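Report of the visiting student (M.T.), summer placement. My assignment was to run the structure pipeline on a short list of targets and document each run. The first record concerns SiaC family regulatory phosphoprotein domain-containing protein.
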Amino acid sequence: MENIKISPTERTPEISFDFEKNIFSITGESYPENVNDFYDDIMGKLKQHLGQLSDSSVEMNFELIYFNSSTAKVLMELFDLMEETAENGNSVIVNWIYEEDDDHMEELGEEFGEDLDSAQFNMKIK
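After the run finished, the structure tokens were exported:
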């Protein structure tokens, strides 16, 4: 599958999905006018790719500064997808990267990470 590289805009994050290395990153701010228009194709390709993996290593990096409630739903779906991928016999690491003084993003990361049992979850200060 061809890698996905989307440059950030004022309302959308940088997307860097390397399907060969299984390293996936979402960086920046996410409050697109239509969250489905922005994320549907990306999520579809990621689901398809991860569904074909077995005994592989996967890394998902979230380095968000701000996101809206519509994006939060997408993030929950991504966390569920990472957990499912780990449950299917893959080694999955999820990194939540945040600024040291950003208590809000730290709390959000902790909340998202609570739902992961099979995937390894790391909180990392930038």
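The chain is about 35% helix and 35% strand. Residues 4-8+27-125 form one domain. I thank the supervising group for their guidance throughout the placement.
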